[in-house]
Amino acid sequence: MRKDRLYFLTILSIAFVFLIVATVASNYFIKASANQLIEVQVESSKREANEIARMLDFQLSNNLDKNKAINNLQETITETSSDSWFISVFNWSGQKVCHPDITKIGQSINSNSNLLSSLKGKNNSDDLYELLVTNSSNIAQLTSEVIHIAPTKTSDLIVAANVNVNSIKIQMKKLRRNFYLIFLIMGILVIVLSSFAVRIIGSRYEKQLELKNSNLTSEVMNLSKLNTDLVSYKEKVIKVTKQDKTEGNSEKNKNRILTYMRNELVPVLIKDIAYVYTENTITYVVCFDGKKSTSNASLDDMYTNFDESLFFRANRQFIINIASIDKIIKYGKSQLKIVLQSETPEAIIISKNKAAEFKQWLNI
User: Is the pTM of this model over 0.85?
Assistant: First the structure.
């Protein structure tokens, strides 16, 4: 139950993060795409208005009657599409003289001065987007808006590039709807794929944990058995030692060895030795009471004088007494680490090859 809850919270977190990112990203992409679309259309409308203004200048400078020029232009633009971007002409008094919708002729032009001034002399699609879309409530009463004017030099005529506000708003709504739909589909795919990924990764991780726990349990059981054998062996050794003392028998001929402590000769009982080790070609003998002395004999020579049921050659540096072992620890993959009751100059490690011999020695 806790595992399923964790999966659920993970998927919920991914969905929440994606929602935040998608909200920010969608607004950015919508505005960027809208600005790019508007920018192209604005530039095209400006160019068209400037060209018509130059054409009117040319005709009027060649003594063409003003009314004739206006009528020719009106015939050209009559019934052309005014659904998005279109051209119109008005005079200095603000009265429309040419318009795609002939019913608009003679009406006064009504335009947002802020929009026109912000776009004057520059192609700023950001301003147009903010004024037409974000702040569309300020011009809600208008169906079209002038975005550029091109005055003629030889008359009072002014050519205007117009935008249909409602058409732009509809385009922006479609663009926004398409982006939201894309992000919705992406969100569903991300959440579904993430849930599968979390499940797969979680299952594999759980299997690895179970395998590790199984191996750890097996190792703990083996070490527990090994330490149990150690305790049993110690009890057996104590029992045998007491019996030997009672019967006066000994498996080994020697009961003590001769060692050196500085310039003194010190005899040491073998049963009192906790461990023997070599360091820098010197053999050290350490007793249970912590006293340390040296010997001229090598580890091999000394081991021949020890009872093999009491002492074990752990490695090339150490001989240990069964009674001095405190605990046995799993070390590496197949090695064992022996911790003695007395402090040792370095860790006592039994190699993989000798670990089986050590376990067999404990089971004697």
Answer: no
